[in-house]
Amino acid sequence: DIQMTQSPSSLSASVGDRVTISCRASQRISSHLNWYQQKPGKAPKLLIYAASNLESGVPSRVSGSGSGTDFTLTITSLQPEDFATYFCQQSFNAPWTFGQGTKVEIK
Amino acid sequence: QVQLVQSGAEVKKPGASVKVSCQAFGYTFINYDIYWVRQATGQGLEWMGWMNPNSGNTGYAQKFQGRLTMTMNTSMSTAYMELSSLRSEDTAVYHCARELANWGRRYFDLWGRGTLVTVSS
User: Fold this and answer.
1) pLDDT for B44
2) CA B87 from chain center: how many Å?
């Protein structure tokens, strides 16, 4: 199975900050990488698919980049509704696997 | 409204079985694969398996082979996940998710809120 490693596991940030979350795959996965946001008690929400494609309705302050093994989720100008847990997922080789998640907390 | 609505929390004893439902609203149920993913407290997300509501085909993660059964009722647009021989390590939130597949891209564009299954004696 492909291992997905996210970093950091958590971070503290303030409203207006720029936040970057990394995701590394244990083997090359081209651009088959998706990002999700999860809030407590809520359904996960798709943010980015195929590494850099913004899902409809997701604000443009959210972006994704990368290819191969290294990927990045960036949120510019963090907003109160962005405090949540984010996780990556590869869809290159079954079984699809997920990163451990990054919790973004208020500083 | 397009959504997946899951059944409520369950408490089961070790060795028992649990069956969780996932009802689709707002879209044509048979057009998209349904996946099941679970998350234990403090752990990452774990892919369990998938089902194609059109064909009835299923695929299970090797870890769950022999214990996991996915079924459906297309007239009710509902998918079911049944896990048997439960043990404490199966305590987790179980999510269903719809997979969108196009142009070689595959991702979960719709998720259920999750069903907490607690296994305790």
Assistant:
1) 85
2) 18
Preferred mutation among A45, A91, A93 to probe B, highest tally of B CBs within 10 A: A91
Q: What is the mean pLDDT of chain A?
A: 96
Cα A102 to Cα B4: distance, rounded to the nearest angstrom: 25
Q: How far apart are CA B95 and CA B55, in angstroms?
A: 22
Chain B partners within 8 Å of A43 (Cβ): 4, 95, 110-114
pLDDT, mean of residues A27-48: 95
- pLDDT of B27-86, one tens digit each? 999 999 999 999 998 888 999 999 999 999 999 999 999 999 999 999 999 999 999 999
Min Cα–Cα distance to chain B from A101, Å: 7
Collapsed DSSP state (helix, strand, coil) of residue A50: coil
Say if CB B10 and CB B115 are below 8 A apart: yes
Selected residue of B1, B93, B102, B107 to mutate for chain A interface (largest A Cβ count, 10 A):
B107
Q: What is the pLDDT of residues A48-72, one digit of tens each?
A: 999 999 999 999 999 999 999 999 9
Residue B74 Cα, gap to closest chain A Cα (Å)? 23
Contact A91 B95 (CB under 8 A): no
Q: What is the token pair recorded at A100?
A: 């451990």
